[in-house]
Amino acid sequence: MKKIVLVVSMLCSVSLFSQITMGTPTSETNRWTFGGGIGLGFGSNSAFYLQASPRVGYRLTDDLEAGVVGSVSWQTSKYYNSTMFGAGPFANYYFARSFYVGANLQHYFINYKDKFYDYKANQEETALYLGGGYMQRIGGNSFMQLGVMYNVLWKENSSIFSSGLVPNIGFVVGL
């Protein structure tokens, strides 16, 4: 019972600490934004997926932001391993302080190894994501972004991605 109370207490204090630090407002003259997202997944055949996508932006106006986003992901299962790195520019236009539309050009470098057939491949692919979504304020100048993007360069038979549609959840500080 003591262990359960200790774990719950630690989780609550971490949660409260993160809310306090994220809600700290920045100076009005600071136009830099920081954020990104993380992903974690599990699947059949011992599949595991880990992804991180940090971003740095600059508010050109109160409603227009441009910057650079990176992406790194690692996947593994009983049958394959895959590592992917990507980077490129992005632009977001915010309206009504709750919604955004955006564009993101990413160039990916992919390293793939099939364990079953002992096959290795290195590929590159460019993706142009267009879309938008909703922003929820989580304190001061911090927001959670929920959106959907579509890769307009996606081709069903030649892309490394299974679909052109990408739902996303991310966080931004500095808006």
Rg on CA atoms, Å: 19 Å
* Share of residues in helices: 10-25%
How confident overall, as mean pLDDT? 84
**Alpha-beta classification:** mainly beta
End-to-end Cα distance, whole Å, is: 43 Å
Strand content: over 45%
The run of helices and strands is: HEEEEEEEE
**Quaternary structure classification:** single chain
Question: What is the overall shape?
Answer: elongated
With strands numbered from the N-terminus, the spatial order across the biggest sheet is 1-2-3-4-5-6-7-8
Low-confidence stretches: 1-27
Tell me the number of strands. Answer: 8
Number of helical segments? 1
Q: Quick one: biggest sheet?
A: 8 strands, antiparallel, barrel
Summary tags:
1 helix, mainly beta, 175 residues, 8-stranded antiparallel beta barrel
Descriptive account of the structure:
- The chain is mainly beta and 175 residues long.
- Helices cover 12% and strands 63% of the residues.
- It contains 1 helix and 8 strands.
- The chain has one helix at residues 2-22, and strands spanning 32-43, 47-59, 64-76, 80-95, 99-114, 119-139, 142-151, 165-173.
- Strands 1-2-3-4-5-6-7-8 form an 8-stranded antiparallel β-barrel.
- The longest helix is centred in the N-terminal third of the chain and has 21 residues, at 2-22.
- The model is unreliable at 1-27 (pLDDT under 50).
